[in-house]
Here is the input.
Amino acid sequence: MKQRQQNQFILNQILPFAFLGIILLTLFWYVFWISPKEVPPATPDESLSDTSPKVRGIIAIVIDDFGYRNDVVSEGFLDLDARLTYAVIPGHENSQSFAKNAQNVGYEVIIHMPMESHVASKGEAEYRLMTEMTSAEIEEVTERAFSHLPQAIGMNNHQGSKATEDPRVMRVVSDVLLRHQSYFVDSRTTSNTIAQRVMDKAMVPNIRRHVFLDNDFDPGLIYKQLNELALLAEEQGMAVGIGHVKKETLHVLKEEIPKMKEQGFQFRFVSEIINQELQRH
Ligand SMILES: [Zn+2]
Here is the structure.
């Protein structure tokens, strides 16, 4: 009788606790020994540390048409706190002095090469690449632009809807760029441009413009375009925008660049974005 009572006691009181104990031990063992552990990064990355926000996208902005003016607007661009790329038209009154100043302050300088457009345009005749020119003439004019602006480490096209559709013109330009170890940004003033195809073939580092910031000089629209550029940078990792040396563009960039940096966007020179893309592919 006593024995039976003891057995009953074991069954009713001890066994459930024993089961619970086994389950808890198993759980403990699983959580601490078997479940995957977080691996600490091998090398801590400064840009991803807790003190700065996560990188949301990388942005390159090119500002076109420097050279015409020397005033509060062109000066204002030399005060913007970001790595920006300034495209200078060769041959204007302030082209050489601006390129020199911009490089001294720490911005990247490229040649904003005048090229033939489908619509008639005036000015820059001395430097404009025309499709009717001989290859020797195209080469001579492009070389002259590099001698005029020795700070330049790249080139983009000013207008050029006709010239960037012409494989021969772009091939001669690519030879000169290769000789100067310079890159090309296709401003994409025509959807029929073959510039990047020619540059790829010639092994000239190149990239395209994704967003025009100020086709319309309304600050609201410039802000909208800048936002579009940021969204694209977030979506594809990087994006290239082109704006112009205009007071409205300067104003919007001055206001928005600090905010965009706080939101996790990083500004880079075009050369840095091209190098990064080359490493990725
Ligand atoms: Zn231009």
About this structure: The pocket of zinc ion is lined by residues 64-65, 112, 158 (CB under 6 Å). The chain has one domain: 57-280. The domain at 57-280 is CATH 3.20.20.370 (TIM Barrel).
